[in-house]
Design brief:
With 138 residues, this protein is an alpha+beta fold. It has one domain: Aminopeptidase, CATH 3.40.630.30. It is built from four helices and five strands. It has a five-stranded mixed beta sheet. Strand 4, helix 3 and strand 5 form a beta-alpha-beta unit. The N and C termini lie far apart (55 Å). InterPro entries: Acetyltransferase_Butenolide, Acyl_CoA_acyltransferase, GNAT_dom. Keywords: Acyltransferase, Transferase.
């Protein structure tokens, strides 16, 4: 199997949806909302993808300023390709697109904490999330 990695190659909503469903990420993404998925793809300004022929098998989708912070919004690898270094390679290639002082930031699924730790990520307990259905209190 020959995995090809591509920077900012267009990914269709259908390809993205299929990958989310063939990884564990569909459980935590709005897979029932195609318009939202389209917006997620369209408004990412750094996407690194992994391909086995024409099949999307991995994606690292980020929003970044390329100099200070890069938020890795999605890291998904098809279950059949997990354990083969695809996720690690997607992160390395993402980091290579960033400036020398740019931090790579992500929110890990609970089961993935040890994965990121062994790659050298540091756990930061200061992350906060405000869901859209809640208002900012004043």
């Amino acid at each position: 199997m020959n995995i090809e990695y591509r920077i900012d190659k267009e990914v269709s909503v259908e390809q993205f949806l299929n990958l989310l469903e063939s990884s564990t990420l569909a459980e935590r993404r709005p897979v029932e909302d195609r318009e939202c998925l389209q917006g997620m793809l369209k408004n990412s300004n750094l996407t690194v993808s992994a391909w086995d022929g024409d099949r999307l098998v991995g994606i690292a989708r980020s929003v970044t300023d390329f100099h200070y912070a890069c938020y890795l919004s999605d890291l998904a690898v098809d279950k059949r390709y997990q354990g083969m270094g695809v996720g690690r390679n997607l992160q390395v290639l993402t980091q290579e697109q960033l400036g020398p002082k740019c931090k790579l930031i992500l929110i890990a699924a609970p089961a993935a904490n040890s994965y990121y730790e062994h790659l050298g990520f540091q756990n930061n307990e200061r992350c906060w999330v405000l869901d859209r259905d809640r208002s900012i209190s004043g």
